Amino acid sequence: MTRVDIAELVGIRTRHPEAVAEAAARRRRRPRLVGESGRLMIVAADHPARGALSVGQSPLAMANRLDLLERLCLALSRPGVDGVLATADILDDLLLLGALDDKIVMGSMNRGGLAGASFELDDRFTGHRAQDLDRLGFDAGKLLLRIDYQDPGSVDTLHTTARVVDEMAERRLPVFIEPFICHRTDGRLRTDLSAEAVTRSIAIASGLAGTSAYTWLKVPVTENPDDMAAVMETSTLPAVILGGEIGRDQDGAYEKWRTALRLPTVQGLAVGRSLLYPVDGDVAGAVDTAVGLL
């Protein structure tokens, strides 16, 4: 792992908080979102701010910030990794560590729907705003759009999402929408990964706001991977495949991603826990394998 001095980070935050803005100002930016490969490989690490800290059987795997930062720095150092998706606290740390030069920096915008909470579907925008991403010179934003047809509050999320997409487009900043159809079973929120549900979520997300010019999709692989070709015909928006929780079947997940990456609208991967916390512990190996799929 890349070594991180946590005491040094805390010392900078304590005595020189302006260092975050200074690091953002001097960060070397990529000239465009998609590089020479024509593909995107994004490492996602925005789970902790929603209280989603578990990986596999470990309920607090992502709670150790030093460990997470070391894993992220290692992942970002691997050839073919284009950038990172995270919340402000993590991105500020990575800026101070100098790990974001020439990388796509994607800010996570709504983290208000805490995992397991009664208000989990109230996905308020408690993270980066469009003006924050613009001010810091970041490259894109990401938002979570979960819709429950039985929850009247979902329309508030839809409305707010549309206006945020407008705000990003005004600044010519790409925004990645991660849409899901959800429902509650025994009080627990579950995502519906059937072909019909994913198709509906893509159709809804694609039509939000006054323009879709800067909108991307971040979509899951359906329960039956063979359905993905038909599902992805729902929109012409560019998309990346998200990783999600894959359990111990890492090879099976890679094959699903490989198949989805052959589709014309799929432009890359945005994967988090399965690469940062692989079953065998080999972060570099997991990242390199995912990059190889592109």
Automatic annotation (TrEMBL):
Organism for this UniProt entry: Streptomyces katsurahamanus
Taxonomic lineage of this organism? Bacteria, Bacillati, Actinomycetota, Actinomycetes, Kitasatosporales
Q: Which Pfam families match?
A: Cgl0159 (PF22649)
Q: What is this protein called?
A: Deoxyribose-phosphate aldolase
Question: What SUPFAM superfamilies does the record point to?
Answer: Aldolase
InterPro entries this protein is in?
Aldolase_TIM, Cgl0159_dom
Cgl0159-like domain mapped to chain residues: 38-291
